[in-house]
Input
Amino acid sequence: MNNCDRQNMERYMSYSTASASKDEPIAMAYVPWQYFHSTYDPDKALMIGTIFPELNKPFLGKRGACQS
Output
C-alpha cells in the first residue's frame, strides 16, 4: 500500500467512525428540478457519455487526487 492509499484510508476511517448518534440522520439530499431543453445527436452523445447538454460535466482531473 503506498503512502497516498494509506492517507485516503485513514481519512475515510476517521470520517466513518466519527461521533455519529443513532438519532441523527446520516445525510440529507437536495436535488433541484432539472429542465432539459435539447439533446445531443446520437453520435456526439456516445462520444461524451450523455445525451443531455445540461449533464455534460467533463472531468478535469482536479482536486481529490494525491499530490505525490
Notes: Residues 33-58 form one domain.
